[in-house]
TrEMBL record:
Similarity comment: family membership: Belongs to the ABC transporter superfamily.
Name the record gives this protein: ABC transporter related protein
Organism placement in taxonomy: Bacteria, Thermotogati, Deinococcota, Deinococci, Thermales
Species per Swiss-Prot/TrEMBL record: Meiothermus ruber (strain ATCC 35948 / DSM 1279 / VKM B-1258 / 21) (Thermus ruber)
GO molecular function: ATP binding; ATP hydrolysis activity; transmembrane transporter activity
One CC-aspect GO term: plasma membrane
Positions of the ABC transporter domain: 2-207
């Protein structure tokens, strides 16, 4: 489903990683660990097609993304990947439900019933009409997770998704994200500093 082949990346003379290779199948989880500056976020951006590949290759469903034009890649990304970040990046003027539906509008296929089902699964259906400023930090991040999974992506990429939350909310978001992804058969790659939260999961450690 996802194949990474001899991937190398550097900023100027600073090499972040070299000859990185791994694969991921539907429903699998992989954790990226490493100190700040080791390239965790850069790797996620490469996997999402948000950075140009310098060396090596990345394949989505067997097809290389290297050298594809931005418009084609953006359309493929919309269907193949879901993205969750440390900050929720919700649209302040939209309600909780409307924020979840954004990927559907971008893909030209809006399913309000599915958006409400996701709200139900994350325990926020009764808050569908509220805007982000009326929600707690944990609630906003739950909305961000639901939004990332709205298009039923093959791959969910999460960059420190619980980094700004307290321990209780972090554990709740983590369990929720994995549960929803498992229900959809979505593979998950998470970059995090929190080794306790991801203990026991397959890991990829960057120096």
């Amino acid at each position: 489903m996802l194949e990474v082949c001899n991937l190398s990346f550097s900023y100027g003379e600073v090499g972040l990683f070299q000859n990185l290779s791994f694969s991921l199948n539907s429903g699998q989880v992989r954790v990226i660990l490493g100190p700040s500056g080791s390239g965790k976020t850069t790797l996620l951006h490469l996997l999402a097609g948000l950075l140009h590949i310098q060396q090596g290759d990345i394949r989505w469903l067997g097809q290389s993304i290297r050298g594809q034009n931005e418009e084609t890649l953006a359309q493929r990304r919309l269907r193949f990947t879901g993205l969750v970040f440390q900050h929720h990046y919700l649209q302040a003027e939209l309600t909780a439900l409307e924020n979840i539906l954004v990927p559907g509008y971008l893909a030209g296929a809006v399913d309000v019933a599915w958006g409400r089902e996701l709200l139900h699964r994350i325990g926020l259906l009764e808050r569908a009409h509220l805007r982000p400023n009326a929600l707690s930090g944990g609630e906003r991040q739950r909305i961000a997770v639901a939004r990332a999974l709205y298009n039923r992506p093959k791959l969910l990429l999460a960059d420190e998704p619980t980094g700004s939350l307290d321990r209780r909310n972090a554990e709740r978001i983590w369990a929720l994200m994995l549960s929803l992804a498992q229900d959809l058969g979505t593979a998950v790659i998470v970059a995090t500093h929190d080794e306790h939260l991801v203990q026991g999961l397959p890991e990829l450690r960057l120096a």
